[in-house]
Amino acid sequence: MASETVENYIKAIYVLCRESPSGEAGVVRLAQEVGVTKGTATSMIKRLAKSKLVKAPRYSGVTLTAMGKKIALDVLRRHRIIETFLVSTLNLDWADVHEEAERLEHALSPRTLDRLDEFLGRPSTDPHGDPIPSASGKVLELRGKALSAFARGAKVEIVQIMDQDRAFLKFVAQSGLKPRVRALVQDVSAQGDSITLRVTRGKSVTLSRSAASKILARLQ
Amino acid sequence: MASETVENYIKAIYVLCRESPSGEAGVVRLAQEVGVTKGTATSMIKRLAKSKLVKAPRYSGVTLTAMGKKIALDVLRRHRIIETFLVSTLNLDWADVHEEAERLEHALSPRTLDRLDEFLGRPSTDPHGDPIPSASGKVLELRGKALSAFARGAKVEIVQIMDQDRAFLKFVAQSGLKPRVRALVQDVSAQGDSITLRVTRGKSVTLSRSAASKILARLQ
DNA sequence: CCATAAAGTTTGAGTCGTCAAACTTTAGTT
DNA sequence: AACTAAAGTTTGACGACTCAAACTTTATGG
Question: pTM for the whole thing?
């Protein structure tokens, strides 16, 4: 059984690989994500490589092996089911839930996880719209395109918020943007560095390009 | 904030002190409870003493200080609320729940704990009948007498099972004995080494003295 | 009252995960 | 091609927690 620390590294590597165009995770970003120095990250990567959970050519990017990916999806499943529980059953705040799940995800037996999943009605996505991997390790990825990729006049439905940062989530929630909400792309600035949405029966919101790129939507 | 390990030692010391007539915990029993060697327990006790969480005169028993007791009750509160959740909401088995709560109790923020407590309707006891300490650290102790202390003919109501051993709990549950169940003391053997109960609208059960001493009841 | 078992302590060593700081490699300028 | 900043690695050390095994103290019962 992978230790809590190992699980955290693996999960971070998974997320970073998903985010980066090269499909590899860098040591510096990884260290940052896990909250350690880069030296520490390097030595942990070595240990992970020794246990065949990652591939890490020297002075190059890190990727997960099949075994590593399996662990990552398992952790992610636990994480997202817990987040769903915290929001939909305990009514905790959308934005606060990530850190809490971060700790709980390592303390849940398979059996309890399954009971929880059952209790929640076997949800397919968490409150951020992130898909919940199945028990057998399958995930639906890319259920939408970045908001920044839509043109003026598009009628869209938000599907996913791809960031766990509290401040960002608070801002997004405040704007009324969350999964399943519908909106109209009212304007796209000339330089394409901002986008204005009109939320159905709500106010307008202007998002920077970087914000818009972290919110996924699809045509209604 | 006390580490997970420290919390486990403190909780074990609390429980052992409650159990022992002298009100003190022995190193060997403590080591056994926590699952380490006695040498390890000794050195941890030293650390706990240095942080003023326990009093431990050399070559003598360990007791908690006020600070230590506060932590113990806090951990116990978390533990018992989680057990209640696992049994009453997720329908997990009474006997399986202890180990699970053991892990989860260290990963719950005060806020989430309170939401969970609220969700459960602020229960006063857990599924074993153990009282849940209040958020301010108060506990109702001794809500009943050992079954072994009742005389033939007594009509009793089970209030608490004072053991976390899986096998014992399975046996007790199988006999239909759990908190709030009513029974009649049908017979007490001459030597007082066994007791026979007739559970209301159920079958009769014979308990050894040691089993009966771990089940608390009160007169109906 | 003293031998001895049980309880408790000490010591030396090991693992895990971490840091700071010195070092090496890579990759992007000019 | 040479310089340099950024990325990655190595080293030595540390704290938390653990063990096994040797040791000391306490309690007990013959």
Answer: 0.88
